User: Fold these one by one.
Assistant:
Number 1:
Amino acid sequence: MGALDGKTAIITGGGSGIGLGIAERFVREGAQVVLAGRSTQRLEAAVAKLGRNARAAQTDVADEAQVKRLIDSVKELDILVTCAGGAVFGPVEQVPMNSWRELFEGRFFGQLSACHYAVPKMKPGSSIMFCSGIAGHAALANYAGGAGLCGAVNAMARSLAIELASKGIRVNVLSPGLTRDTAIDWGVPSEAVPEFLAGLSNNIPMKRPGTAGDMADAAFFLATCAYATGMVLDVDGGWTAV
Ligand SMILES: NC(=O)c1ccc[n+]([C@@H]2O[C@H](COP(=O)([O-])OP(=O)(O)OC[C@H]3O[C@@H](n4cnc5c(N)ncnc54)[C@H](OP(=O)(O)O)[C@@H]3O)[C@@H](O)[C@H]2O)c1
């Protein structure tokens, strides 16, 4: 018996990195998962890894009609996890404004619209887990738009937790610190990524980046703890404790 036997989860960004780690954990616990992302190749590889309890649904979460189609593809929904999105790094005067607008289209409005369409399909006992990042409260240079986005997601989740409590739906945020082995674009050449991550790890009391498995442990807690709502869970090796 798995803790998520008989549950249906939609995981946006489930084709790689943190979303895929969460999908692996949820499938191990007995859930049926629907993985959403833009690249069919990436999604198919993920489904091949996870087996018959996973299916792919090609979706661009920046497009509301596609988000609606994704949610419409399930009859009922027990767990919504929204990890789709990327990051934009760079000095404020250099990053083109459009890059931040695009970031918000997918990573803010993508999460809000998934929630908008999902709530009518959720029974009491269901849960929503947004994804932000520690930049929502740990100041990081060269990340102004991303920091604003993470703060906005955290605020949105707290508001929704209060609003949806009467429907028995819990709402929380996974707020990852530095996490390795994902497809995220760090804005440095791929050969420089190990050195880049090692440099940032100096800020982390545990002196290492997190893994997708670490994030999946936290996501499993948020999906199963019946008293957890309105939480922003920083999973960051102690970065924000300093
Ligand atoms: N890695 C970290 O250190 C870290 C730290 C804090 C927060 N985060 C956040 O955690 C989330 C997961 O990131 P990750 O590190 O696991 O990186 P990742 O491996 O790149 O995962 C992001 C996933 O989102 C999908 N995606 C991106 N834009 C999308 C869109 N418009 N519509 C649908 N799918 C989309 C990508 O697939 P397609 O490109 O195929 O669509 C990809 O599978 C992101 O929101 C990221 O910003 C990451």
Number 2:
Amino acid sequence: MNYTPRQIVEELDKYIIGQAKAKRAVAIALRNRYRRSRLPKELREEITPKNIIMRGPTGVGKTEIARRLARLVKAPFIKIEATKYTEVGYVGRDVESMIRDLVEVSVRMVKDEQAHEVEQKVAPIVEKKLVDAITDTRRASDIETNKDTVLEDLRAGKLENENIEISVLDTPKPMIAVGGPEISLGSMFDGLMPQKRKKRKMTVARAREVLTSEECDKIIDKDNVNAEAIRRAEEEGIIFIDEIDKIIGGAGGSNNQDVSREGVQRDILPIVEGSTVSTKYGNVKTDFILFIASGAFHVSNIEDMIPELQGRFPIRVELENLTKDDFKRILSETKNAVTLQYASILKVDNIDLKFTEDALDEIAEMAAAENETSENIGARRLHTIMEALLEDISFNASGDHPMLEVKVDRAYVQNAFKETKKKFDLKKFVL
Ligand SMILES: Nc1ncnc2c1ncn2[C@@H]1O[C@H](COP(=O)(O)OP(=O)(O)OP(=O)(O)O)[C@@H](O)[C@H]1O
Ligand SMILES: [Mg+2]
């Protein structure tokens, strides 16, 4: 992860329109981690991340920025809702579970990476086991067969859907949650209990997956994986705390609810400040995890947060409301633009969807207008409009015709929303 701040912003620009300030802030925070990692150990220990609060209306890209950032640098990332947590001692999730969740993500990442590497190595073993299982299953039902032809057919991909019986590890139920911290019975007894195997029926394709993962598990050193996963969670982990404003009591008056919200803030504090949380993979230090908090802050202010917690989020960025021009760009310019998504999804059913420039203008304009007159839901409005706009085509496309070009232009959009538009104009009038 040696992206410069400029490169990070460039990458984010491919997915998120506008919000330059927020992009800069996260880019700097990320690069600072890299800079820190290059320092001598004594100095490194002194430098903690500068956590960020993103403040802005709903649907303008807060979550999306954090998510893309994590994916870009392949950092362990989780998004949590602050409102999900309750003070220690109350029913609900305790705040430490966010660290356990982060480590889970990290373990999965490291495992996937390593599995990728060893998959090639185990392929011949898996192939041999498949051949054995196929011949055994066939013979069990008195079908004559021999391994050479099976191998040939298997390699030619002819047997993928054949049902076979293989013996697989009988894995115990993974998790039990007893209110408080979760422990996995499975791993507690790892190595203590003999591993049971049991016969299961499945297709060859599925059996290949199961056997591959079993064989990979044998080669991959679990302790190494866990150690690397913990290191990554500690040094590179990003926790996105959504709806932080909802655990801040509004200005004035303190009722019971405010008190318990403040309790959650107090519980979160040590985690953000740096503490050690025990997980089933080992202890995790939270000192260098990057926290990005986000909220609309309609009724509460950042200043209403308990001061200690405020101090832990020194960087504050405002996200802008999206304009009509932004909407147009979001519709067509981003890599995951909705228009592209619908086009590729409908191509499966032989519809070649094309949007004209003026159709995009029209949709963007509608989105902006509707956000103004009814609830402002930001870019999410585009999804609701697009869904309604293409409802008819989506329903009627069946694929049993040659490729059909459908051009969506301004007239098409206006026509599709004739009825809604009338209501909408009326509403504007009444307001
Ligand atoms: N600036 C933007 N550029 C491109 N797409 C955007 C932008 N803002 C929002 N979107 C799209 O809108 C949807 C909602 O965005 P996101 O989840 O980031 O909202 P949010 O700001 O986190 O809102 P909330 O406060 O409700 O959590 C996503 O599908 C996202 O891709
Ligand atoms: Mg969000």
